[in-house]
Amino acid sequence: MEKVICVKDLKREYHKKSGLFKKNKNIVKAVDGISFDVYEGEIFGLLGQNGAGKTTTIKMLTTLLAPTSGQCQVLGYKTFGEEKNIRSKINFIFGGEMGVYRRLSARDNLRYFSNLYLIPANLQKERIDNILELVDLKDRADDLVETYSKGMIQRLQIARGLINDPEILFMDEPTVGLDPVGARMLRDIIRKLKAQGKTVLLTTHNLSEVEELCDRVVIINKGKVIYGGTPEEIKGDSLSLEDAYVKLIEEVSE
């Protein structure tokens, strides 16, 4: 399989002021030398606690944040300096209810984003209909988004993220805050995307999500990769993935 994401010794530091009158400058290492590769067509997970560096990593991969140092390439291009070659070929979905327009219908939202991506008018209708069917919103396509449940809005977020037919879809904790039924529907959609040949990279701290969806995963703790492999490899001889994960976190915290 072809590598579509290559990360090597990637770092991102912030300067934080503290002390009286904010005169002291401290360096915060949000991402501290991580390395991993993602292959075409796989579901790849970044697993870690809140504050581990997952969101900072995904922002660098999606060209929203410049690395401090290290290598960060997507589809063979640098995410900082060659970002114009990447942006039309990827999309980014985040958890929560931001990112779509609540006073528009789902169909009108997708028309709007189609125009932003300069998708020809003769292609828009069929693509929008197909995407709405994929995310199970076709029956509510012309209702205002403000009448949707949280799970429906999150499915519309995925629809928005698919409108430019991206090669790679980045998801930052896509099921956060959803009820079990909504979360299951979202996981089903992610599996359908993999079946269509899409590459999906998602951040999560949900272990059952990792075990159910991910082909491979890296565990990040305090900005560093502490383990990588398939969910079964991480689990090893432990009774559960949760036991193995907690053990790894405790070992690096000692």
Q: Strand share of the residues? A: 25-35%
Strand arrangement across the biggest beta sheet: 6-7-8-3-9-10
Tally of separate helices: 8
Number of beta strands: 10
What can you tell me about this protein's structure?
By secondary structure, this protein is an alpha/beta fold. It has one domain: Rossmann fold, CATH 3.40.50.300. The protein contains 8 helices and 10 strands. A 6-stranded mixed sheet has the order 6-7-8-3-9-10, with helices on both faces. Strands 2-1-4-5 form a 4-stranded antiparallel sheet. The protein is globular, with a radius of gyration of 19 Å. The two termini are 38 Å apart.
Topology:
Layout: E1 3-18, E2 24-39, E3 43-47, H1 54-61, E4 69-74, E5 77-78, E6 90-94, H2 106-116, H3 121-134, H4 150-162, E7 168-172, H5 180-195, E8 199-204, H6 207-213, E9 216-221, E10 224-229, H7 231-235, H8 241-253
Parallel strand pairs: 3-8, 3-9, 6-7, 7-8
Antiparallel strand pairs: 1-2, 1-4, 4-5, 9-10
